[in-house]
Amino acid sequence: MKHTVYILGSGQDGGLPQVGSRMAPDMAARLDPLAVRLGPSICVLAEDGRCLLIDVSPDIREQENRLLRIPVYAARPAGNPFEGVVLTHAHMGHYAGLVHFGREAANTRSLPLWCTARMAAFLRTQAPWEQLVSLGNISLMPLEQPFEPWPGLRLRAIPVPHRGEYTDTVGISINDKLLYVPDIDNWSAWPAAREEVSRHEVCLLDATFFSPEELPGRNLREISHPFITDTLAFFGDLAATRRIILTHFNHSNPVCNPGSAQARRVVAAGFEPAQEMTALAL
Ligand SMILES: [Zn+2]
Ligand SMILES: [Zn+2]
After folding, report:
1. What is the Å distance from ligand 2's center to 24 Cα?
2. pTM to 2 decimals?
C-alpha cells in the first residue's frame, strides 16, 4: 500500500491571517489566498483513499475542501471523513477543530482518536470535548506504544518538551520515514533531537519564529519554540542528506513570504519552507 503525506496547514495555531492582527502580512493574506497559512495539520492518505489526520486545526473545513480535490480522497464513501485522528497536544491549533466532529456538524461515529493518557483525560473531562466521548463521536485510543491504523502504516509517538498547561506533547514518526514535530520548546531540551532527525528521510519541524527580532519586548524565556536561526545551526549538517521542511510559521515570521531574504536564507541552507498541500511520498 502506497501512502502520501499532505501538509494541510503550515501556520502556527492562529494561522495567517491571524484574527485581530493589522500587521502587513495579515492584511496582504486577506487579499491573496496564496499567502494564507492554515492551522497546523498533516494527513496520511493511502492509495485506496483511507486517510489518517494528524492534529485537527480550526481550519479543518477548508483543509477538507482541499483534500476533496484529490480524486482518491473524493471517492471515499459518505461517513467519517477520516479513518482516524492523532493528536499531538492540546494547544488550540492542534485539536480545537474537533468541534466539527460533534453532533452539530459531522457527527462522526466511533472515530478512532489516538492521543496520550493526559490528552485522553483532558478530552474525557472537559466540555465541550467530553460530549464527543460520551456520545460516541470519537473512540479514545492510546498512543504510548507504536500502533498501526491499518496494515502498512505504522506510527510512533515521541514525547517532546513543550509548554504543557493541559497535556503533554508528542512528535510523530510515520513508517520510520517521516518525522513531524510541529511544537517543541527548543532542540537542545530534547536529547534525542539529532538522533531522531537522522533516522528519518523527511522531517517537518517547528519553525514558529525566525528570530527574536519578531518579538520586541517579549521575554525570550517565555517563548516555547526554537528560532529558525537556531534550527539552521542545530540541524544544518543533516539537511544535506534528508529533506528538512520548516513548518508551523507564526504570522510574524518573514519566511512566510517566499521572496523575503529570510526565506532565501532558509533555502540556501538546504532547508525547505512548508507549503499547503505539498505531497510527500512515503
Ligand atoms: Zn502549535
Ligand atoms: Zn503548542
Report:
1. 25
2. 0.97
